[in-house]
Specification:
It is built from 22 helices and 23 strands. By secondary structure, it is of the alpha/beta class. Helix 4 runs parallel beside helix 11 (about 305-320).
């Protein structure tokens, strides 16, 4: 089977062996526990979902992928610990902020139970959420973020109830609150301290590291904290040191150096009497969104095994040199745990093609510039590509100027645009067959990329793409046995010019156009945006009042068959209106009054009123995204 199109999207590099090519050209999900099994077609799965009334856009969560990530992380640390002779264990926690959805958090606790995998709460609401979950025996519940007295009280009493709840001190004032609440309750808390490292890492989130980071104590504040705890007979409460390395750290050397500095603080705090047991190295473990394995913002130059080995070896060296016991290692690697487990799937609604395959001739009375532009194809050759492109753009602009001055009519402008598109199409064809094309020509042709409109909201479902230029892998879900004939950017359905994606992961690197197939009238054409499990569901907003999409969780059963496990319906219009302070019933009643006045004035009749009200009521209770009505077509 020819898999060249499949490989052109670099799926074999960033897909971690969890996506495969079906015999019919569909993209399919692979069961990580059965790597030799045939992939399960995503388009066929979507047809089955649609038959159930579950339509795109949707988030597809794959339980097996989440389990695989947890197994990989814990397995890599176990191997590094065994190989290096580390004399303690690893206990990971999942930062709830990365994806707070119940279907994600509960599965992490379920799949991570054998590893004693815990949670990290960064706020009082997240702590309340965490305290309601069934944590594994001995798992940590690490409490970060700014804490008021109520937050602290919850943490202390949870500890008394048998939960390993660690209150991490983020500021000097917070320590005073903890001491006051502990004395009021007559209970000793389990404490941690977040220390600002001086080492600053590279990457998109460099500002979250170093001594200018927002959270944590300076060296002087740490020393003062120890003295205050000692004076209050509470130094024995300090059992954990938290030093956040960064987020999505691309360079392994940054991780090793930051861990080394964290260990230096750890051994010094122990020397001063703090009975530290846990070394929490926070986040930092990267995801290779591009598959390039390079130290860039969207990739990293290390493997999971290398990451774990570097941490374990660095900690061993530091502790042995200081003649101190090895601590329990803790990381908060949320991105690495959940990113691969979710896929945003959308259908393409329509396309704007910026070329034309069929020639069009000027009319006899048309301005001569239309004929001049049409004649460009007569002298088009590899050596004259730039000249032909320049000529086409010149004639188009001149004809537009003539229209603005009233010299030519709108019909001539329409024909001129079609002639221009035909010329550009022939230039694109020639460039595609040429190996030696100047960067200037390629850059100019980028202005004539197609626009494919996808049924989703960038701001709701992929906020990092808009806000921080996050690159996420995107690929068609079908026809991967057919070479794509178009190059396009993706536009969402919001009323905003920023609602577009123009950076794509391809085999040769990042490109500003996605190779994509021409649409067929009888086929629903799907695209998938991958590795969206981290932060995207959490950070999405209600731009244009587009709400949460449908969410479907699937998993492979004992026989390797993919089954639907859980479904969460996306927001209705009424639910979204309620979120922005509009009461749906009041909206309905207000519109009813407006329509009734139209009946009384004779603008509509009673039958039209009924249809209008039924449509309004159905829309109020409907999906916020484009809805395909009365469709019977299926994949294939």
């Amino acid at each position: 089977m020819d898999d060249s199109v499949f490989r052109s999207y670099a799926i074999d590099r960033w897909g971690r062996g969890m996506l495969g090519l079906c015999e019919n050209g569909d993209l399919g999900l692979l069961d990580p526990s059965r790597p030799a099994a045939a992939p399960t077609s995503l388009p066929v799965l979507l047809d089955n979902m649609r038959a159930r009334g579950i339509d795109t856009p949707l988030i597809l969560r794959v339980g097996a992928f989440l389990r695989r990530s947890l197994d990989d992380l814990n397995g890599a640390f176990a191997r590094a610990i065994a190989t290096a002779g580390y004399k303690s264990v690893y206990r990971g926690v999942f930062p709830i902020k990365v994806n707070q959805q119940a279907g994600v958090v509960d599965r992490i606790l379920d799949y991570g139970r054998a590893y004693g995998f815990g949670l990290e709460a960064g706020s009082k609401p997240e702590l309340i959420l965490a305290l309601s979950r069934d944590l594994p025996e001995g798992a940590l519940l690490i409490c970060n973020g700014i804490k008021d007295a109520e937050y602290v009280r919850l943490g202390i009493l949870a500890r008394k109830a048998g939960i390993n709840c660690v209150l991490v001190i983020e500021s000097p004032g917070e320590l005073d609150t903890v001491i006051a609440e502990a004395k009021r309750l007559g209970e000793k808390p389990m404490l941690g301290v977040r220390i600002k490292l001086t080492r600053r890492v590279s990457g998109n989130w460099a500002d979250s590291s170093g001594d200018r980071s927002t959270f944590g104590l300076t060296t002087k504040e740490v020393v003062d904290m120890l003295e205050k705890l000692r004076a209050q007979d509470m130094l024995d409460c300090l059992t954990l040191q938290h030093s956040h390395l960064g987020s999505q750290v691309p360079q392994i050397m940054d991780i090793r150096q930051a861990v080394d500095e964290a260990c230096r603080f750890f051994t010094e705090l122990r020397r001063l009497g703090a009975p530290l047991e846990y070394l929490d190295l926070g986040g930092g473990l990267g995801i290779d969104y591009t598959g390039e394995a390079r130290a860039t913002d969207n990739s990293m130059n290390y493997t999971l095994d290398e990451y774990c080995t570097n941490i374990v070896e660095t900690v061993i060296y530091a502790m042995d040199e200081a003649d101190q016991p090895h601590p329990v290692l803790v990381t908060e690697s949320g991105r690495a745990i959940v990113a691969h487990s979710s896929i945003l799937i959308s259908d393409i609604l329509e396309a704007s093609y910026f070329d034309r395959s069929e020639p069009i001739s000027p009319e006899p009375d048309d301005h001569h510039m239309l004929s001049d532009m049409a004649a460009i194809t007569g002298y088009l050759s590899p050596r004259r590509v730039q000249e032909c492109l320049n000529d086409a753009e010149y004639y188009r602009e001149e004809l537009r100027a003539l229209f603005r001055r009233g010299v030519i009519d709108i019909e001539q402008v329409a024909r001129a645009e079609q002639i221009f598109l035909y010329v550009v199409g022939r230039i694109k064809d020639l460039v595609a067959q040429s190996d030696n094309v100047s960067p200037e020509v390629l850059e100019e042709l980028n202005e004539h990329r197609d626009i494919y409109r996808a049924n989703f909201s960038l701001f709701q479902s992929l906020p990092d793409v808009w806000a921080i230029d996050q690159v996420l892998p995107i690929a068609p879900l079908q026809r991967l046995n057919e070479k794509p004939g178009r190059r396009a950017i993706l536009s969402d359905i919001t009323c905003d010019s920023d609602g577009k994606i123009n950076q794509f992961v391809l085999e040769d690197g990042i490109d500003n156009a996605l190779p994509i197939h021409e649409l067929r009238a009888t086929e629903r054409y799907y695209i998938g945006v991958f590795l969206v499990g981290a932060y995207q569901e959490t950070l999405g907003d209600l731009h244009n009042l587009f709400g949460d999409t449908n969410v479907v969780t699937v998993d492979f059963n004992a026989e390797g068959i993919l089954e639907l496990e859980h479904e969460v319906e996306g927001d209705t219009v009424a639910e979204v209106l309620s979120a922005v302070e509009y009461e749906p019933r009041q909206c309905l009643d207000a519109f009813k009054g407006i329509v009734e006045r139209a009946v009384r004035s004779g603008r509509i009749n009673p039958g039209q009123r009924r249809i209008l009200m039924e449509t309004y009521r159905e829309s109020l209770n409907g999906y916020t995204y484009y809805e395909h009505l009365h469709e019977e077509e299926s994949h294939g």
